[in-house]
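Dear colleagues,

As part of the handover before I leave the project, I'm documenting each prediction I ran so the next person doesn't have to rerun anything. This entry is a single chain, and its sequence is reproduced below.
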Amino acid sequence: MKFHWWYIPLGLIILLLAAFSALILWMHSMLPWKNMVSMTSNFHLELSEKMKDYATGGQRDYASLPEVLEMEDGTAVTTPEDFSRRREEILGLFEAHVYGAMPNDGFTTDFTVVEEGEALGGAAWRKQVKITVSTQKGSSDALMLMYLPVSQSPVPVVLGLNFNGNHSVLDDPAILPSYANELDSQELEADRGAKAERWAIQDAISRGYGIATVYCNDFAPDSSKTYRSRVISLFDEPEFKAVGAWAFGIMRGVDYLVQNESVDASRIADIGHSRLGKAALWAGANDTRIALVISNDSGNTGASLTRENKGETMKSINSIFPHWFCSQYQAYGDDTDALPVDQHMLLACIAPRQVYVANAEDDLWADPQGAWNALMASRSAFELYGLEVLPYAQSQPAIGQAMHCQSMGYHCRAGWHDVQKEDWAFYFQYMDEFLIPQ
C-alpha cells in the first residue's frame, strides 16, 4: 500500500479522538451524564436553561437520609443534653467514615510573633504569627497573617485558610512569604494581592472585623504525593488526611485567637471556600469555640448532601482527590445510601452555634440545591435549643436574595465558583445582626 503524507495528521487526529473518548468513558464510569453536564461549570461554560434543568432538576430521593435526632440505636433525641451525646456520636461517624482522624492530643502548639505593625493607613494593626505544632517526631510551622481594626476593645475575627499564600490576600509589601511558598521572589511580588477580593480585608476593617488567614499548604500540601509532608508527618496516623489537616490547622489558629487580648473570643468565625469550605465545616463542627461557621461553595462532602448530588459525586471526588478523605469513604462510592452520615448532620453538629451556607448560581458542580436541602435537614438540631431557624422550603431562595435568622443564613448569588464582594457583603450583614457578644 502506498504511503501518503496525510496519513500522519489523520493518525494523530484518530489518536486524539481515541484519547478524548477514553477520557469521557473514564469520567462517565464515575459520573452519570447529568453530573458530567454539571461539570461544565468548572470551565465557565454557559448552559441553556433547558440543559441546566436537565442537570439539576427532577426529584431527589432522600429516603435513606439518616435522622439527626435519633441515636444509632434508635433512641430519640429530645433534649439538648441528648443532642450533646448525639453530636459526639455523629462526629465519631464522620471521623471513621469520611474525614479521617482528628488528633486531639499528643501535640503541643506554640506561637511566636514574627512581625507586626500599622497597616491600611493606620486603620489596622498587622500581626504575623508563627504557629508551631510539635510532637515526639518533630515540629511543623505555619504562618498566620492577621489584620485587626484599631480598637479600644476586643474585636470579632474571621479566620480562614487561603489557597495561594498569605501574600496573595492583600497588596501589602510587609506580608512575609508563607512557609510552604514555592514561588521565587519575582513571582511572589507579581502575585501580591492577586486574591484580595476573596478576603475583603479593607471592608472587614472598616466594619470592625479582623481577618486572619493561613496558607493551606503550610499544614498540608494539596497533593496526593506530598500531603503528608508537613503537619501530618508528625503523627503516626495513616487516616489523618488533607481535609482533616486543614481543619486541624484552623483549630490551631483558634488556639492563638482565644488567648489574644485584642480578639473577642466569643465572636470568632471561620470561613472556607471550595475544598477549604469542607475543612471550615469540619473544624467548626469539632471546635465549639468557633461561634459562626461560613461555607462558601463547599459542595460535595462540604455543605451539599452526598445523596442525590447533582454535581460532583462521592465516587468522583474520591477518585480524583484520594488524599482528602479517609480510605473508608471510598467504600461508599457505588452505594451512597450505605453511608451512615450525610452533610446535614455535619451542619447540625454546629448547633447551638451559627452556620452560614452560600453558593453561586452557575456553580452546578457544588450543587447549590443540595446545600440548601442539607441546611433544611439540619434545622431540627437548632430548634432543639429553642433557636429560630429559616422556614422550611423545598426550593432555595431567589438568586441574590439572602435569608438570615438567629441560627443560620443562606444565599446563592449569580456567577461562578468563587468568593466575591457580594458574598462578603452578605456575611458582614449577617455578622452585624447576629454575631453578637455571648
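The mean pLDDT is 96. The first strand starts at residue 108 and ends at 119.

All the best with the project,
I.
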